[in-house]
From TrEMBL:
Biased amino acid composition, Basic and acidic residues: 109-119
Biased composition range(s): Polar residues: 1-33, 482-492
Database matches in InterPro entries: WD40/YVTN_repeat-like_dom_sf, WD40_repeat_dom_sf, WD40_rpt, WDR89
Organism: Noccaea caerulescens (Alpine penny-cress)
Membrane-spanning residues: none
SMART domains in the cross-refs: WD40
Biased composition range(s): Basic residues: 498-509
Xref: SUPFAM superfamilies: WD40 repeat-like
Repeat region (WD), residues: 196-234
Region feature Disordered, mapped onto this chain: 1-44, 58-80, 101-120, 482-509
Keywords: Repeat, WD repeat
Keyword Repeat recorded: yes
Designated name of the protein: Putative NOT transcription complex subunit VIP2
């Protein structure tokens, strides 16, 4: 547990900047951009809708320019660019449906009078939670349960929190909402700074610039309105807008390329590339995927390599050097076999790739040679059997702090999440939950953001979570503080609890 705790709050964590569950009309479309130029925001978040179903249709036909040369790519296998894959069905019975993404405005079901009433009374509302060391009945190992410090309503209504990401120096965190806006807060006090507003459709991914010298205050976002925008967070004004045109929806973006001048965007079933220095489109990869692309990632230690993942069940690897095209620059294809929601890198040299699907399966691949190290088709069942809480209903993300360690973060519909260690060197092995965050959310959790020790340690903070209940929850890692036993909702965003305050229990809504 100590290893997990230190890795969760370590500066090397690949999840320290959050991983949201912003999703598009039928699935999630966010991914991080692990680039020296732009802060890595975690890997793409696929929200797994718990109330609907969706089947990816039969893959008819061929990949246009390669139909004569591509013959047979096996399920859960890899094929080099001179091979092919056959027609098949990639079924997903747990894919997010459009209703969860339709115009979540702040006026949903609430009159202005009711909203004002809630705001006035919010500071009086408190929710008691327990923080304690406990032993899970399914394991002899102790389970860490973090204390909830504060719970902040991002708005009063039916808004969702999609993604939480930090500024490179951790002086601010940005939160994308289902109102198509991005709000900024202090990660230590919860103070509200302001909002970036301009997108006309779902914000699918956000990322701060990682260049602390040249552009420390720049935030980037992509949306289903077909744009990638940059914002100056000092004045909350838009400073750049790249338009995909042709009614394209952009589900993911990543900065990279051999000279770090490329911007890749996942646009419907295409992958578009721009030179971000002049906003000119330099390539359109339209023959490699047959359905919506959920993720794009430039490889961290091989900046000219671009990976894309799609609802069609394929992960494609492109070489982005020179004049980029499907025919000449598609190097290999991995067939996962079902709709892909999220991928991320792990390993000392980032040579491995973890993959979460929309039907809650987990697999580990070597993206360089296409080999599959483990495929856990029953990942959700393994996680559910590994703790005494309710069944795990969905996966929020994976956490790899660097090196070979990997945890999958599972959640319940009631808002409790747990960290489950994955031993992918022994196929089928998943350990008992090593950390539990419960008592803060009452609905599906979309995003988890851990604070590195150098930023949150002094305040005893573990990090932040956001979910479908519209709450931002701040978690404490200091078990000995009396403040751990209380959390509350406030229209002023956060109020420090006096340690001698009497415990009260009130419904937050």
């Amino acid at each position: 547990m100590s290893n997990l705790h230190s890795s969760l709050n370590g500066s090397a964590s690949n999840l320290q900047d959050g991983s949201g569950r912003s999703f598009a009309a039928s699935y999630s479309g966010q991914s991080g951009a692990p680039s020296p130029a732009f802060h890595h925001t975690g890997n793409l978040q696929g929200l797994h809708n718990l109330h609907g179903s969706y089947n990816v249709g039969n893959m008819q036909g061929t990949l246009t320019s390669r139909n004569s040369s591509m013959n047979s790519i096996p399920s859960a296998g890899v094929q080099q660019a001179n091979g092919s894959f056959s027609s098949g069905r990639f079924a997903s019975n747990n894919l997010p449906v459009a209703l969860s993404q339709l115009s979540h405005g702040s006026s949903h079901g609430h009159s202005e009078e009711k909203k004002r009433t809630m705001e006035e009374g919010a500071s009086e509302m408190e929710l008691e939670v327990q923080n304690r060391q406990l032993s899970d009945s399914s394991s002899a190992q102790p389970v860490k349960k973090f204390g909830l410090k504060n719970s902040i309503p991002t708005n009063f209504g039916s808004d969702y929190v999609f993604q939480i990401v930090p500024k490179v120096d951790w002086t601010a965190i940005a939160v994308s909402l289902s109102t198509n806006t991005v709000k900024l807060y202090s990660p230590v006090t919860g103070q509200y700074y302001g909002e970036c507003k301009g997108h006309s459709d779902t914000v699918n991914q956000i990322a701060f610039s990682s260049d602390s010298a040249a552009s420390p205050n720049v935030l980037h976002s992509c949306s289903s309105d077909g744009t990638i925008r940059s914002w100056d967070t000092r004045c909350f004004q838009q400073i750049l807008c790249i338009d995909a045109e042709n009614d394209q929806k952009i589900f993911s973006f990543s900065y990279g390329g051999a000279g770090d001048h490329l911007l890749a965007g996942a646009c419907n079933e295409q992958v578009l590339l721009w030179d971000w220095r002049n906003s000119k489109q330099v390539a359109c990869l339209e023959e490699s995927h047959m359905d919506d692309v959920t993720q794009v990632h430039f490889a961290p230690h091989n900046r000219n390599k671009l990976l894309s993942a799609s609802v069609d069940g394929l992960i494609c690897l492109f070489n982005t050097e020179g004049a980029i095209s499907d025919d000449d620059h598609l190097e290999s294809v991995i067939n996962v076999g079902t709709s892909i929601g999220k991928i991320g890198f792990l390993g000392d040299c980032y040579q491995k790739l973890w993959c979460l699907t929309h039907i809650e399966t987990l697999s580990i691949w070597n993206w360089q040679d296409g080999s599959c190290q483990v495929n856990l088709e029953n990942a959700r069942e393994l996680a559910s059997d590994s703790w005494s809480q309710d069944n795990v209903d969905y996966f929020v993300d994976c956490h790899s702090p660097g090196g070979e360690d990997l945890w999958v973060i599972g959640g319940t519909c009631a808002g409790t999440i747990g960290y489950f260690p994955v031993d992918y060197k022994r196929p089928g092995s998943m350990g008992s939950a090593e950390a539990i965050l419960g008592g803060g959310h009452v609905d599906v959790v979309r995003s988890v953001l851990q604070m590195p020790c150098e930023y949150g340690g002094a305040a005893g903070l573990f990090g932040w979570t956001g979910g479908e209940d519209g709450r931002l929850c701040c978690w404490r890692s200091d078990e000995n503080s009396a403040e751990n036993n209380q959390s509350w909702t406030s229209s002023e965003l956060v109020v420090k609890t006096p340690k001698n305050r009497k415990e009260n229990r009130h419904s937050p809504y």
